[in-house]
Specification:
- The structure holds 2 protein chains of 2 kinds.
- By secondary structure, chain A is mainly beta.
- Chain A is built from no helices and 11 strands.
- In chain A, the strands form 2 sheets. In chain A, strands 2, 4, 5, 6, 9, 10 and 11 form a 7-stranded mixed beta sheet that branches.
- Chain A is globular and about 40 Å long.
- Chain B is built from no helices and 11 strands.
- By secondary structure, chain B is mainly β.
- Helices cover 0% and strands 59% of the residues of chain B.
- Classes of the chains: A mainly beta, B mainly beta.
- At the A-B interface, strand 4, strand 5, strand 9 and strand 10 of A face strand 4, strand 5, strand 9 and strand 10 of B.
């Protein structure tokens, strides 16, 4: 029944590894997002994906790559993990451009710790 | 891009007290949402309120779009209200991407 679900919830991995976080939404939304929440709780957009249009935050290192097999899924792949990548990653979705507004719904977050 | 400022950054209350949280934004918006991030990290939708006033139990929100601010009122606070409150806006400029303020961290003591 979960509207936006992401896995895994917790991930501990070593520097240099490659990892993926998966996200799925069952709300019928056409836009999905990845946000990063740092240790100071600031939520910063990383990517937005709408009908094959990818909008990238230019400050995101190219070690991060989103992959969307269909509009219900947006996975986040991270190469060569660094200590500074430790954070909580939130997936979200909305219906872009809807007359009633694009209310955004969040998954429960994925806690990534790089050691 | 649009700037979003929330105040106060931190707030400590005794149970039963009332509070007002503020969100200022630098440009016109067509979407504004308030969220509560609970101590377990979940982001919970409180209000979708690009303009006007809404109420839900002890919480209410008002957005004055022409003056570019929104207020979240918490009445008779409870310990379960503790957490971080975020305001997120979507600029009318067409980026469609919600931009978050830095949040107000609320602690309610019993």
């Amino acid at each position: 029944d979960t509207a936006v679900s992401q896995t895994p919830k917790y991930l501990v991995t070593q520097m240099g590894n490659d990892k993926s976080i998966k996200c799925e939404q069952n709300l019928g939304h056409d836009t999905m997002y990845w946000y990063k929440q740092d240790s100071k709780k600031f939520l910063k957009i990383m990517f937005s994906y709408n009908n094959k249009e990818l909008i990238i935050n230019e400050t995101v290192p190219n070690r991060f790559s989103p992959k969307s097999p269909d509009k219900a899924h947006l996975n986040l792949h991270i190469n060569s993990l660094e200590l500074g990548d430790s954070a909580v990653y939130f997936c979200a979705s909305s219906h872009r451009g809807r007359a009633s507004g694009n209310t955004i719904y969040f998954g429960e977050g994925s806690w990534l710790t790089v050691v | 891009g649009i700037q979003v400022e929330q105040s106060p950054p931190d707030l400590i209350l005794q149970e039963g007290a009332n509070s007002t949280l503020r969100c200022n934004f630098s440009d016109s918006v067509n979407n504004l949402q308030w969220f509560h991030q609970n101590p377990w990290g979940q982001l919970i939708n409180l209000f979708y309120i690009p303009s006007g006033t809404k109420q839900n139990g002890r919480l209410s929100a008002t957005t004055v779009a022409t003056e570019r601010y929104s207020l979240l009122y918490i009445s008779s606070s409870q310990t379960t209200d503790s957490g971080v409150y975020f305001c997120a806006v979507v600029s009318s400029g067409g980026s469609y991407i919600p931009t978050f303020g830095r949040g107000t961290s609320l602690i309610v003591h019993p």
